[in-house]
Specification:
The chain has a five-stranded parallel β-sheet, sandwiched between helices. The protein has a single domain, classed as Rossmann fold. The chain has eight helices and five strands; from the N terminus they run E-H-E-H-H-H-E-H-E-H-H-E-H. Helix 2 packs across helix 4. The chain has 173 residues and is an alpha/beta fold.
């Protein structure tokens, strides 16, 4: 059994995954980091060279690999919900927690991030709102639990996620 984190970038997946890894004594697996390693280049460079469909193909391949691990915290990229093939794999890997934050929080957290190319070509705030609107039903469909991350400490969020998932993970809550 694994613990899977999904949500838009800037919702806290990476930092919360590290906190969960420490609390559980489990390794943390970042799908974005594995994509960079497998591609041998940054995500913006990969998308510029090969396009979004090739990126999603590689991501789907790596999701299958990650889902087969045990006792791992899996930190998914924000667009993992874009491919139907990822749904059953991730839901079967363990409880899926959707981390959610408001658009202003996301913009404040990642406004200067240059590691992701634009998805829409619009202003950053417009893009966040548009992509969130499109992905929200997908996140909801994949998730077992929803956790709001606005103005909350990592420790508080880790505690809440462990409480929500402890029965399924077979750990004390």
């Amino acid at each position: 059994m694994n613990l899977v984190l999904i949500g838009y970038r800037g919702t806290g997946k990476s930092v919360i995954a590290r906190g969960l890894g420490v609390a559980l004594g489990w390794p943390v697996h970042s799908l974005d980091a594995e994509i960079v390693e497998a591609a041998g280049m940054s995500i913006p460079d990969f998308v510029a060279a090969k396009g979004w469909p090739a990126f999603r193909d590689l991501e789907e391949e790596l999701v299958a690999r990650a889902a087969s691990r045990r006792q791992t915290v899996i930190d998914c990229g924000g667009g993992v919900v874009e491919r139907e093939g990822n749904f059953a794999r991730l839901r079967g890997a363990g409880p899926v927690v959707w981390l959610q934050a408001s658009v202003p929080t996301i913009v404040a957290r990642i406004g200067g991030d240059t590691q992701r190319p634009s998805l829409t070509g619009k202003s950053f705030t417009e893009e966040v709102q548009e992509v969130l609107t499109r992905r929200a039903p997908l996140y909801q469909r994949m998730a077992d639990h929803l956790v709001q991350t606005d103005a909350r400490s990592v420790e508080d969020l880790v505690s809440e996620i462990l409480r929500l998932t402890s029965a399924r993970l077979g750990i004390g809550g």
